[in-house]
Design a protein that fits this description.
By secondary structure, this protein is mainly alpha-helical. It is built from eleven helices and two strands. It folds into two domains: about 70 residues, Arc Repressor Mutant, subunit A, CATH 1.10.10; about 160 residues, Four Helix Bundle (Hemerythrin (Met), subunit A), CATH 1.20.120.530. Strands 1-2 form a two-stranded antiparallel sheet. The radius of gyration is 24 Å and the shape is elongated.
């Protein structure tokens, strides 16, 4: 049997964008390097300049390049900050959870396992400022009249500060998706049934352990938080089914 031949033309814009993206990821092109001109890229890929322009727009939308006007302008490899990368990572993680129907138990397990991985460094490197922020969030969580949305936001802020206290931007980047995306999902499922007093007590014990530079105790508290979150989640899921 003859193999069917596809008459579909390749997306040349995508081909060019992928080629430049691969050059950036491989290190062939590094931050602030100037890309070849539109005319040179059009000649290299044997396409029109509008096709090249559209490819560059795609790369700019992915925050991989920036464009500058003027005699010394052109397209340059963009220097991406950790903050921007964290935001993109959190957005991707949120989409992964919402679109692919990840089981609550699986998301919970991943989120706490990753957070526990940074408590040793956080215990060693935490600053007075880190502790101040964590205790301020605990105080906020105990305030009367705090809405569910505000409580959830404070919950996220406390755990993000714990992660950032590790003083490792790579860890903070990797865990941004876990805390910013997974924890709000957990909060949404469990906030109506959970005891704020119990959460505040656990957060206080967690912060106390970090202040004492005791990662074993901190992980034990995170383990208690995971069990409590799973219990609430399973109860919620059972009530809906």
């Amino acid at each position: 049997m003859k193999k069917a031949v596809s008459n579909q033309k390749p997306d040349l814009t995508a081909v060019i964008a992928h080629s430049i993206r691969d050059a950036i990821l491989s290190g062939e092109l590094t931050a602030d390097d100037r890309l070849p001109s539109e005319a040179d890229l059009a000649e290299r890929y044997d396409v029109s300049r509008p096709t090249v322009r559209e490819a560059l727009k795609r790369l700019a939308a992915q925050s991989l390049i920036r464009t500058e006007r003027g005699a010394f302008g052109g397209a340059f490899v963009r220097r991406l900050s950790y903050g921007e990368a964290q935001g993109q990572h959190a957005t991707s993680s949120s989409l992964l959870l919402s679109i692919n129907e990840v089981e609550f138990k699986v998301a919970c397990e991943a989120r706490f396992a990753m957070e526990q991985a940074c408590t040793d460094l956080a215990s060693k490197r935490r600053s007075a400022g880190d502790l101040t922020v964590m205790r301020a969030e605990i105080e906020r969580q105990g305030a009367a009249g705090l809405s569910d949305e505000e409580f959830c936001a404070s919950d996220v802020a406390l755990h993000r500060r714990l992660v950032d206290a590790a003083g490792n931007p790579i860890l903070s980047y990797q865990l941004a998706g876990a805390v910013e995306a997974m924890q709000p999902l957990m909060n949404m499922i469990t906030f109506s049934a959970r005891s704020r007093e119990q959460i505040v007590a656990l957060h206080t014990s967690l912060t106390d352990a970090i202040e004492r530079r005791d990662p074993l105790e901190a992980n034990a508290v995170l383990g208690a938080l995971e069990r409590y979150t799973l219990e609430l989640g399973e109860r919620f899921i059972a009530s809906r089914s």
